[in-house]
Amino acid sequence: MPLATSLAIFQSCKIIGVPKSTRCAILRDMAKVRKAERRPPLNKTHKLKRQDWAKKYLKTDFSKVLWTDEMRVSLDGPDGWARGWIGKGQGAPVRLRRQQDGGGVLVWAGIIKDELVGPFQVEDGVELNSQSYCQFLEDTFFKQWYRKKSASFQKNMIFMQDNAPTHASKYSTAWLARKGIKEEKLMTWPPCSPDLNPIENLWSIIKCEIYKEGKQYTSLNSVWEAVVANVGFKKLVETLDKRYDFPSRNHFSRVCLPALYDECRQGVLKDLANVKYFATTTDLWSSQTMEPNMSLTVHFIDADFNMETRCLQTSYFPEDHTGQNIAAGLRQAIAAWNLDEGKLICMTTDNARNVTLAAQLNGWMRLQCFGHRLHLAIGKLDMIYGCNY
Fold first, then answer.
1. pTM for the whole thing?
2. How many helices (H) and strands (E) does the chain have?
3. 24 with 68, same domain?
4. What's the CATH code of the domain at 66?
5. Given phi > 0 = left and psi -120 to 50 = alpha, else beta, which region is 121?
6. How many CA within 13 A on the CB side of residue 233?
7. Which residue, 10, 36, 47, 383, shows the most beta carbons closer than 10 Å to its own?
8. Range of weakest confidence among 93-97, 130-134, 155-159, 378-382
9. CATH number at residue 380
């Protein structure tokens, strides 16, 4: 009876009434507690295809193969990773229980010879299908890495991906072919063979580091930061290429993010340069750490009569939320984006008195937010009739 419980074993022998501690003590002399081994479900056809794969690539220069894969990292970590020894008399630490491990981040990366490609984060909320997978590769792998390589490198590189439906679909295969990755440049991969991909070792190193001692995370940004900043990952990068200077958190916050913001701001200013009339939406809200913020969004119709929307800013707003302060803050925000206040048609807000007063003080037409009013109406129906909508 492999993997049977001590109770089931004793009952099969028609022995009842024996305490669990005694049952386990007796069984330890003749058996061990083990988990079932996890392995791909290989049948005869799978094994033959693995042999064919090995024969086909027996003389391949694997230093020219780009091994790719995705990995999902959750806030709570994989099941069973929170176990460990504690001293006598010490209580077990409290561990949060959240649905779906608190959510997670999907990471894509590749390794080729002594170089690491990525890792790249799949945008939160994006469900990978054939179309979104190809777009993801275009925005990350091709734009940020592949196109910077020499023509000879691109000619000799072999692209490896597993047989996930998003990878092996006709759409993805045809899309990669248009990019020049086809035939011998796209590695044939045997089914049910994740153990053949060396990048699995990279995933193992990362997970061991970021979840050691049962660590949990509070946000998707923090777990992503752990992926790219943990010690094991740095050691791996140094092993692949010692010349690579790993950027710090301050480098991203003080250099990369401001540069991205400036680039995005210039693009928005260019879009707004020829706007004749515009409308805005604003709201005040607090973050999870109770920091007050004010958002401003602009809406306009471009030269091709398309409705366009740009979020201009979500800025820290520590001042008292009086009508006067809000009015001044909104005027400063509009002026900061070179918008002519006289071209403002109306501003959509909720029904808060301070925001209503701010619009009056600035002499702006105000439009009540339909979504906010609908939410209030549903809330009143629930209070009156006890209905859940």
1. 0.54
2. 16, 9
3. no
4. 3.30.420.10
5. beta
6. 21
7. 10
8. 93-97
9. 3.30.420
Interval 98-128: pLDDT, tens: 665 567 888 898 988 878 888 888 887 788 8
Asked whether residue 225 is assigned to any structural domain, the reply reads yes
126 in the same domain as 16: no
Sole residue written with tokens 């054939």: 130
Identify the residue whose tokens are 């699995």: 200
Is residue 29 included in any domain, yes or no? yes
Are 285 and 184 part of one and the same domain? Answer: no
Q: Are residues 206 and 73 in the same domain?
A: yes
Instruction: Give residues with Cβ within 8 angstroms of 269, minimum separation 6.
Output: 337, 338
The reply to whether 285 and 345 lie within a common domain is yes
Domain limits for position 14: 1-36
CA distance 300 to 314: 19
R_g (Cα) of the chain, nearest Å: 29
Q: What is the pLDDT of residues 249-305, one digit of tens each?
A: 677 777 888 888 898 999 999 999 889 999 999 998 887 667 888 999 999 998 888
* DSSP letters spanning 262-325: HHHHHHHHHHHTT-S-EEEEEEEEE-TT--EEEEEEEEEE-TTS-EEEEEEEEEE--S---HHH
Identity of residue 150 = S
